[in-house]
Amino acid sequence: ILLLIRNPKDLAASFYHFSNGLAAFPSYETWDDFFTDFMAKKIAWGCYFEYLSEWNKYADQENIMTITYEEVKENPALVVKNIATFFGIPLTEEELQLVVERSSFQSMKKNSEKTHGSFGDVLFRKGDWKNLFSEDQNKKMDKAFEERIAGTKLGKKLKYDLYCKA
């Protein structure tokens, strides 16, 4: 099992735009409305902190590999190599580079019309949590993270201080 996790602020900002981009989901007139629902666990698929807490129970099992979105951004070649090793898939250097190139955000966005149709515009967009969060919202999210997930294995893996502090 490959478990990909993301810092909660990026996830919230991304899900806000995702929700507003698809007719099948409730849309939100403002970021503030979405943030209130997000923190109150009133969004599709429930509470992200509960999701992380549940997965944390299994994080040490040998058949589970956890990576963060931030790790993928920092060193995609190393992450792809580690995933291939975890699944027992031998990759030549050429194959590794091809996977890295084709799975880059830029490449997926460029090809999104072919691969995902109009849905691609909703999926492939840059994050912007720092432009959405108010100071108060930032503090609320930081507090929720500290109280609910910071001390866990997955919480520590997220390197919250590094990626989420404004």
Automatic annotation (TrEMBL):
It comes from Aegithalos caudatus (Long-tailed tit). Keywords: Transferase. It comes from the Eukaryota. The keyword Transferase applies. GO terms for molecular function: sulfotransferase activity. This is Sulfotransferase. Pfam families: Sulfotransfer_1. Belongs to the sulfotransferase 1 family. Residues 1-152 form the Sulfotransferase domain. Its EC number is 2.8.2.-.
